[in-house]
Amino acid sequence: MISLAYSPCPNDTFLFYHLIRNTNYPVKEELYDVENLNEFAFQGKFPVTKLSFAAYFHIIEKYILLETGSALGRGCGPILVRKKNSKTDLNDYKQLYIPGMLTTANLLLSLYTNGTQKPTALRYDEIIPKVLSEEGSLGVIIHEERFTYEERGLEKVVDLGEWWEESTGYPIPLGAIAIRRDIPRDISLQFQSNLRESLKAAYLEPKEMMDYIRSNSQNKDDAVIKSHINLYVNDFTKNLGNEGHGAVEYLLKRAIEAGFIKKPTSQALFLGES
């Protein structure tokens, strides 16, 4: 049996549903917020884990990225928001909330502002209420919050994913599935293959799978859940490919050049194929 950890967000529960129910390949799953997963990854707690790319860059010596399972794409990046008509911007904010210091959202914000911001970390679903309740606050939102922030009284300051795409030409790498380097390669490849089969099966969308996804999601609205899955589960999730590899490598390069991450040892980033 292999232990794995992932978030309760719809794209992850969609991805893993059939894998965790595969009686021929027993796994033990645990679900946590992405920043908790990032922190656990530093400890090497789980053999397989979801984590932010930004966190992965710090622990390349412990884990290697699977080719399947990543949240990477276009039009799906974090968004910096404020209350409608508040005129608060990065020059005069009183509080700036992010969904975790180790998240790719924070790395993107750091690259956008050249590291001049002084953020406060909150769990991602607590950011919108904070920004709404406080004058002069900004927040970086992720996950399903990007589908609901306008109707909840917020407006966009900058779409950090859009900024990244326009300034680099690359899709934005957000989160990935990684496996510990001490796991034998044949086992790692088998897990990757089974995960790919789980993703294929998920597109059949049986009712029990949607019940599982809904039961774990912060937002229970089916339309929001399906929009979340459609946005964050894409061809890069099936296989990173050359373009996905290039995007990850370039984000790492930019983070190193900016001094936000130390240059890692020269180990392979990606598991590759069998």
From TrEMBL:
Pfam families, A to Z: VitK2_biosynth
Positions of substrate binding: K50, L51, S52, T104, A105
Any one Gene Ontology BP term: menaquinone biosynthetic process
Keywords recorded for this protein, A-Z: Lyase, Menaquinone biosynthesis
Pathway: Quinol/quinone metabolism; menaquinone biosynthesis
EC numbers, comma separated: 4.1.99.29
Keyword Lyase carried by entry: yes
Catalytic residues (UniProt): H143 (proton acceptor)
Catalysis performed (reactions): cyclic dehypoxanthinylfutalosinate = 1,4-dihydroxy-6-naphthoate + dihydroxyacetone
Superkingdom in the source lineage: Bacteria
Residues spanning the membrane: none
InterPro entries: Menaquinone_biosynth (IPR003773), MqnD (IPR030869)
Family that this chain belongs to: Belongs to the MqnA/MqnD family. MqnD subfamily.
Function description: Catalyzes the conversion of cyclic dehypoxanthine futalosine (cyclic DHFL) into 1,4-dihydroxy-6-naphthoate, a step in the biosynthesis of menaquinone (MK, vitamin K2).
Name of the protein this chain belongs to: 1,4-dihydroxy-6-naphtoate synthase
Underlying gene: mqnD
